[in-house]
Write a structure and sequence with these properties.
6 helices, Arc Repressor Mutant, subunit A, 3 strands, three-stranded antiparallel sheet
């Protein structure tokens, strides 16, 4: 039973990896940004929240505030992010998306639209719904197990 599941998981991982690698190559041609994976994670975190603190980012990244500060500083220098003083708490610095960050997400929307039109639209909607449902179920299981401790 476990060997059967392992083979299925290996196949899922291999197909997912190859598909994602191909999509990244396609996207890379459309993106001019040269962001590291950590920079992309920080940018995505800030983008989803619109405004957050350095502490929020450090908690999310499970990293030290100084490490996060280095990442944010680089993204700020390149105008992807900007920092401002929280008017409600002057000791708190908030981080927001800046001009290049907005442009990055506009390009990402165009790329997502291209990928949907080029690839996903070739599958029946019912298959996509089933795939989404299965991934959601697996995501829920992973979240629950992590919350309960992996031991």
């Amino acid at each position: 039973m476990i060997e059967n599941i392992k083979q299925i998981v290996d196949d899922i991982n291999q197909y997912s990896y190859e598909m994602n690698a191909n999509l990244v190559k396609a996207q890379k041609a459309l993106f001019e940004d040269d962001l590291s994976p950590k920079q992309t994670l920080v940018l995505d975190f800030v983008h989803k929240r619109e405004k957050c603190t350095m502490g929020d980012i450090a908690d999310y990244m499970r990293s030290s505030p100084s490490a996060v500060s280095q990442i944010v500083t680089r993204l700020e220098k390149e105008n992807y992010l900007k920092r401002d003083i929280n008017p409600n708490n002057r000791r708190e610095v908030v981080v927001m998306i800046a001009e290049h960050g907005e442009a990055y997400y506009r390009r990402e929307e165009q790329i997502d639209k291209f990928i949907i039109e080029k690839f996903y639209s070739k599958m029946p909607v019912e298959d996509l719904e089933q795939l989404c449902s299965l991934i959601k179920r697996l995501h829920h299981i992973v979240e629950e197990e992590i919350a309960n401790g992996l031991g």
